[in-house]
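Long-time lurker. I teach an intro course on protein structure, and each term I like to show students one example going from raw sequence to a predicted 3D structure in token notation. This year I'd like something fresh instead of my usual example. Would anyone be willing to generate the tokens for the chain below so I can use it in lecture? Attribution to the forum is fine with me.
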Amino acid sequence: MSGAFSRIARLWRSPMPLLSKELLEQAARRRTYVLRVVYASLLFFTFAWIMYDRLKYALRGDPFSVLGYGREIFETLIYLQFTGIFVFLPAMMSGVVTYEKERDSLSLLFLTDLGPWEILLQKYFGRLIPMFTFLLLSLPLLAIAYSFGGITSNELSAGVFLMFLCCLQVGALSIMFSAFHRTTAGAFLSSYLFGFGFYLFLALLWLLLEVTSHPLSSLIDDEHVIFAFFPPFVFADTREGPFTTTVLHSIPILASTLLFLVLGRVFLVARAFAPRKQRLLDLFRRQDRFWSRVNRLFGGIVLLKDKGDLPEDKPVAWREVTKRPLGKLNYLLRLMLLIEIPLVLLAIALISQGSVHGMHELLSLALFCLWGVSVLAVSVKSANLVAAERSSQTLEVLLTTPLRGPEIVRQKMSGVWRMILVLLIPFLTVFLVEAFLSRAWWTWPYPSNVYLGGLPCVLFSLAAVLVYLPMFAWFSNWVGLWTRTRARAITAALIGIVLWNVLPILFLVMVSPDHEPHEPLSWVFLLSPASTLIMTEAGGFDVLSTMSPWSVMTVNLLWHGFLLYILRRLCILHADRYLGRLEEKRGQEPFVGGTLTGLQAKGS
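-- Reply from a regular --
Happy to contribute to a lecture. Here you go:
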């Protein structure tokens, strides 16, 4: 016991060298200040838009009408901050330990007098402090909202307290996976996917049981149980009560934070020197051996047979589709079944239910989740193609081959195309179920003349998948070509995709008078790839009322098809420059047998 107290005392008295190193390194990076300026600009622009929307009416009439308007400003700022925490903090935190593993420098940290708890906590707060500085940017705006009235000091305290707890919880979840995984990509994906399931699994389960009228739905009917670990819900539920109520309801959040930190401490030591294994590939190979023995009883039937063990004329493509865990077609089909089987069970439950109550909402929710998982998987894999070669220091070896840069990029994308083709099956399942059940959906709460419905909806939705997923893949590949690390490539690609989908819609809402977009301003809506999903699932064709749904969808797909062509050409034409080879000079062939650095060293 005395040893534990002495360690805590030493931790408190120590200068915390690892924390200082993390903060100094981030302070020396230009992107730290760029992100801070972008975050502050979005926050203050949102505040200015809300104030302008209110003041333009107050100046025309009674200027005292703005009093009591602080509640709306306060709610918008708080929920915007929660969104920023859930979106950006996992990306900032997931590579904090894996970066040391990828550089083989974690063993050096263990040679110092720092204990595992000290390493974990200093790394933990080294990424939380920059996030806290982002949250501090909202304090002046919250003070202005408080001065307008409409909110109490308890609500203000509850909002700030729960934002602080949300940072601790999301950061602990991300650093736990960073300590567990060997690579940044694995920690990144696990943080988002597990976080989604952790916060919304009970809610999705209850919705499914409620729609199917299952008797078990009454066991988890209490929303306080479903969202007990979700800080925004705790804020909305306890904001009007005393501050002690907020603290009591936040105990599950604190408990989960401590649990994640304890698991992170265990994984930091247990997984520090774990060999670099492709566990998913090993699992598939063990399954192959098992099913091969079973298949002997049925005559040795083979559905998907490998062409050969050696490459023919495309060695990079052969490496991507045979030596990667998500490259082989039979392995991708097995992962597809993990998505397809729940969708088929959901379709059977909805068709056998016979009631239209909640059918469209549940299918739309399943489609939104499928889009999110698909875009995440395709974007991470594409952004990691070249960035992984740089991190593993194998890009220099690849560039010594006689393959040209464009050919390398094309062949690296072979595994991505297989993934996209396999993902078409779950999408087609959802689209066909919607078309089958659309006969009972003519009573939706929006006019039926703005809904495509039936087979046209299936065709346009499938075309959107065939355009959007390759477009996001080439965009992520372009980001991965000019970034240096995996974490930066994946983070930049996903942030770019999120902004690409959200900014046109936010701009349209903000600048439209009375929040009712009119042409030609409403055409900005089509700049967002998410517009297709909104129009087909939520009946948003009335935004462009002068055109038929067929014309709107055609224009949308043609525009994004053009962007797909531009992104692909950008990656192909500038492949040698992005990969580090000599730029092509006029009238000369680009240098193929090595990199620019190697040629300069040879010349010197």
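Some talking points for your students: Residues 311 and 318 are 6 Å apart (CA to CA). The chain has two domains: 17-275, 282-580.
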